[in-house]
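Limitations
The structure tokens in this dataset are predictions for the assembled complex, not deposited experimental models. Users should treat interface geometry with appropriate caution, especially where small molecules or nucleic acid strands are included. An illustrative entry is reproduced here so readers can see what is and is not provided.
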Amino acid sequence: MGAALRIDPELCIECAKCIPYCPEDAIVPRNRQIVIDLDTCVECDTCLRASVCPTEAIKKTALEWPRSLRSVFSSVVAEHKESRVPGRGTEEMKTNDVTGRFRSGDVGLMIDVGRPGMGTIFADVERIAVAVGKIGVEFEPLNPVTFLMANKSTGELRDDVRMERVHSAIVEFKTSISKVPAVMEALEAVSKEVNTVFSVGAACRVESDGSVPLMATLKKMNLRYRPNGKVNVGLGRPLSNG
Amino acid sequence: MSAKGINDKASSEKLRKALRLAMKFDPVNVGDMKTGSMYSKNMDMQKILDGVKDSSIVHAVFSSFENASKYLKALKAENLGLSVVVSGLFDKVFDMAQQNGLRPHTASLSLGCFGRTDLLPEVLPVTTMCGHHQVPPRLVRKLASQVRNGLMSAEQAGKELSSLCVCGVFNPVRAAEYVELLAEGASVTIADDVGSFSGPSPRETSPKL
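Predicted assembly:
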């Protein structure tokens, strides 16, 4: 298994204060001790940051690959090495006014696997990536999950990551508005095959008349979307050369 | 936030300016994903400001439309050149942009949640205020129980839950309102299924505390 978060049994006084602070319910009483279930633990460090242990019995040790993936995807402060973005590891639409990642007519889909609050193993992330890969989408090159793909056309992941568990991981890709119905059908089918939840986000440019073309497409499909969301308000710009 | 490889170089000072500016408009939470929020344990605003890096993503949360709009106006005037994303009801956000002479660039819609939705906890309106799942459902239920038994106030519970959300996007005021409802035995659930193929709705019975 390698190094991981653990509770030092010499220091632990079994007060159980830490138990409710684990978002994955990985801290459990077992054999008259309080332990971290390493299969469930996603190395997010929330238990450490909570600072509730009166004896500082929770210890963090250096993680080895592939377990280190858990921390990178689950600890908010960890920066993904390839994208240099903390948290989700991808800028998505948040900097689209600067990057131009999604242009007019594009739709950026973000399939947040394990969210909200269930966690996921990468095997389920792969199921979803492969399902949309069959439609011929373009996986986002700067997304951390894309970096784990053995085949960036099909969405298949590397063998050594499939059983690692994380809070969530985002399958991110670009497609055209016309392909959204096919994407949603593929997601409907694969939703029956995964043992977790996934949240679907879709980003698109706001037209000059203030309309959001994707909203009209979704209405035609009889697919609702939430009345709240995120809006990039267009204040960003690239640095000048001067 | 800055865009990596495009305008991130030396953006830390601009991000610090954005945080200092936010404090003028009475936010209910602020933070930096790299360091922590104003409610994080062993943290204060100076530590947050000192810890800002070019790769930081800073947040500010407001409980009033007016304060959020004033902040947006101030950000526009400051002309930092960094991307700003406003989260909220689309109607309100578009109104806010129009009020401040801004043309929204990109929108991100939520099409809902799919898969094993039957396994989702009841307290999602609280826990999902942290987008990184740092706020445990079990802790929400525990603190609601403590509020019900008079061991802590709902406000204290809201702040304790906020302490786990590193980036500062969690709203402690709203959390306190939800915890108060839970303490009174009411249920808090997601409103409406979204999507044509979502699973069973989260239970609508009162959660056991």
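Some entries come with short summary sentences. For this one: The CA atoms of residues 117 and 199 of chain B lie 5 Å apart.
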